[in-house]
Specification:
The protein is α/β, with parallel strands linked by helices and 159 residues long. It is 47% helix and 16% strand. A five-stranded parallel β-sheet has the order 2-1-3-4-5. Strand 1, helix 1 and strand 2 form a beta-alpha-beta unit. It is globular and about 45 Å long.
Length: 159
């Protein structure tokens, strides 16, 4: 089966944090593909890759970037697939990644990016959100997402 979720990040330095999205989706049985591409450093390669997604069966795109984090917006500008943006804390981040959060979330009306929390929790939530989007037309996946929730609840209640 081909990947239904594509994960892209602006630098290989984002890989450790974005692994939470890959891992979460793998745990839910969702196949992913992962690329390092930059809105600023590799604009042509990014455009080509985005154009290839829908024909190859990708249904949701997750984009992680730090600093002037335009990656998710640049992807959303070129596809109508749902795009989830993960703001990351770059080494020179302002206010713990507030720069990336604002760059990702403040999209102009008409071109949405579903923006999650900064960093690893956001990357994990991006994976869950992507699975929830796919689960609207995949009952078995929906069941696995519900099981994940139940597991979390059980952990909280167990103290
Ligand atoms: C962003 O700048 C990347 O997404 C990364 O979070 C940050 C730093 O990138 P490198 O200088 O480590 O390549 O574009």
């Amino acid at each position: 089966m081909s990947a239904r979720v594509a994960i892209v990040m602006g630098s290989s330095s984002d890989e450790t944090t974005m692994h939470a999205a890959v891992e979460t989706l793998a745990g839910l049985g969702v196949e992913t593909e992962t690329r390092v591409l930059s809105a600023h450093r590799t604009p042509d390669a990014l455009r080509e890759w985005v154009a290839s997604l829908e024909p190859r069966g990708v249904r949701v795109v997750i984009c992680g970037a730090g600093g002037a984090a335009h990656l998710a917006g640049a992807v959303a500008a070129q596809t109508t697939l749902p795009v989830i943006g993960v703001p990351l804390q770059a080494p020179n981040a302002i206010a713990g990644g507030l720069d990336a959060l604002l760059s990702t979330v403040q999209m102009p009306r008409g071109v949405p990016v579903a923006t999650v929390a900064v960093g690893e929790a956001g990357a994990a939530n991006a994976g869950i959100l992507a699975a929830q989007i796919l689960a609207t037309s995949d009952a078995e996946l929906g069941q696995r997402v519900r099981k994940l929730r139940e597991g979390m609840a059980a952990k909280v209640l167990a103290g």
